[in-house]
Amino acid sequence: MLLSGIKKKALRLAEGLELVDFGFALPYTWVLIEGPEGKALGVAMTLPEEVQRYRNSIDEPSLEAFIERADSLNVIERTLGIAAVNAVSQYHLDVSNLPDVDVVELVEGFDRVAVIGNMPPVVRALREKGIETLVFERNPKLWDRDTYSDALEYVLLPKAEAVIASGSALVNGTLEMILDRAKNAELIVLTGPSAQIHPELVKGTGITHLAAMKVVNLERALLGLKLGSFRGFEEGNRKYVVRV
User: Fold this and answer.
1) Is the pLDDT score of 145 beyond 90?
2) Measured between alpha carbons, how far is 193 from 168 in angstroms, rounded to an integer?
3) CATH code at position 29
């Protein structure tokens, strides 16, 4: 399984790093770690519509314990696990020389693009360029007239020439299916704060680019997370794109 492979690689990257703090919260679950080179913050989108009456099996929180749950069927454990994987990834990832390219620019030249997770600014920009855009969303609250249920990804993704997938696909466990059904796509971008994963962890999966955010102002980003603020968190970040 994709997540099982990711966690094994992430556990090796986690050697010598320690858990500092964490929070299962809205809008993002977050994990703060520290190593000889300093601190790093990883996040994962919290999906309240996925949460049921789960009991967290982690009695003693640690970085390794969180990463071990990255492929858990318990969405709370999985969300903490992905945030921990992202924290480790960010610790090892130098983005200083990586470009800040709008994700829409990456798919220019393609006629049919699938967007996994309704991202209105991205969708609007694609359609303004005359690109046929197939939008899929699991949460009915985020549907509009031109949004498909994610149940139709299985049928329609093989027709996509390029795919822009929210990093939340890591959190809800659908990324493996998306990659399998999008095998005809020449370009697959994982985007958003939840896509902070290190490119080495997804090499060979079919993902071609990661368009994510690096925390550059740790205090500001942490305060935003603790206050439940999208904007407060993102103001402490720098966007980047990296080829896998």
Assistant:
1) no
2) 9
3) 3.30.390.100
Give 140's DSSP letter.
G
Which neighbouring-strand residues pair with 164? 115, 189
Q: What's the Rg (C-alpha) of the chain? A: 17
Residue 6: name the closest of 213, 214, 242, 195 by CA: 195
Q: Please tell me the pTM assigned to this model.
A: 0.95
What's the token pair of residue 45?
């989108």
CA 101, CA 106: separation in Å to the nearest integer?
A: 8
Q: Tell me, yes or no, whether 133 lies in a domain.
A: yes
**188 touches 208 (CB < 8 A):** yes
- Distance, in Å, from the CA atom of 67 to the CA atom of 79, rounded to the nearest integer, reads 10
17 token code pair: 């790093």
> Around 210, how many Cα atoms within 13 Å sit in the side-chain half-sphere?
27
Flag whether 24 is in a domain.
yes
pLDDT for res 142: 85
Reference 171, options 52, 8, 44; nearest CA is 44
Distance, CA of 196 to CA of 178 (rounded, Å): 18
- Domain holding 40, by residue range, is 2-97+216-238
The whole-number pLDDT of residue 185 equals 98
The structure tokens 């967290």 sit at 56
Beta-strand ranges (E) seen in 95-166 are 112-116, 132-137, 147-149, 162-166
At residue 140 the predicted structure's pLDDT band, cuts being 50, 70 and 90, is confident
Pair 137, 193 in one domain? yes
The answer to whether residues 75 and 169 belong to one domain is: no
Q: Comparing 52-56, 154-158, 165-169, which segment has the lowest mean pLDDT?
A: 52-56
